[in-house]
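Review this today:
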Amino acid sequence: MAGNNGQPPLEIVAVRGNEELRSFLRVPWSLYADDPNWVPPLLLERREHLSKRNPYFRHATYQSWIARRGTRTVGRISAQVDHLHLRRYDDRTGFFGMIEAVDDRELFQALFDAAQNWLMEQGMRRVMGPFNLSINDELGLLVEGFDTPPMIMMGHSLPYYAGRIEEQGFSAAQNLLAYRIRCDFPAPRHLDALTARVAGRVRLRTPSRETFSGDLAIIKDLFEDAWANNWGFVPFTDEEFTELGRNLRLLVPLDYVRIAEVDGEPAAMMVLFPNLNEAIRDLDGRLFPLGWLKLLWRLKVSGVKSGRVPLMGVRQRFQGGRLGATLALMMITSLQTSGLGRGMEDVEMSWILEGNRGMRNIIESIGGKPYKRYRIYQKELQGC
């Protein structure tokens, strides 16, 4: 593709080997060099995420590209076909993700052309994104809230991205909110009355090392039941959830996990993740030679001051009623005690669908404020 304004020609290159993958992973470093709120991801973890060892690739097809002008890598994008999504929705929808690029309309068009053409070759007729890589990973484009760093497994982007994507014919499919809550929030005034109503029926418990494997299966079952009717839901595979369990063991203290039982049966769950981004922010993406020691110290000894709740769910038969709201509030206030005990100051609850008024009301009742908005885009591919 010919260059303009005296620039070298633009070349879109499919990522096939290690050289292209290294360039793909490194694109954000030049783009965010002057952004104080960008957190360099761990390169080792990102490489693993895109490797065949990621259980996502047991049910998905994937291709990625980098964009070059001369010797400089100026952008990247990925495209995915998730066969579990297709099996569930039968909607011929593929996904784009990993979008990063300098502010250049021609560049964005070339990257999206590559992704869209590949998706049409796979038989897709609609594209949504960004998904990095699936709905159970980091997703959505940051469109509001650029003035603070992202929490663990949440994205950051540059303000011009939204406009450049919309120039390619994309429109909003969903908005996702991230709420910020001070850990020292006062308990809602009506909580005592709510808990008194369920006294003797509801029990909150924390997993132990001995019960962890069984409790992980309970958390998976509760998540799938609670989220089954949520927009875009695709369940974790057993292999994916086992991988998540390994990460939980490594990163999450057991007292950051709650399972709520009603009349002796699991009814709700909640997991608070320490904010890994806070711990890795100054490591420049590297664990070696000394980064791993700093990370270990910060997670296991000094602790981090922020966290995120990525997993929370109430079984469907309790949703929409007083008992469901009570379970959610009881878990939140119980984990508040654990977080404060470890020096945590702020927690993000995300992502929350903008239209999920019930969950938003619960979070706002304890002082939560929406401070970031992420957007999922969509576009029909026929006639591209």
Remarks:
- The chain is about 35% helix and 30% strand.
- The mean pLDDT is 94.
- The first strand starts at residue 10 and ends at 14.
- The domain at 10-177+376-380 is CATH 3.40.630.30 (Aminopeptidase).
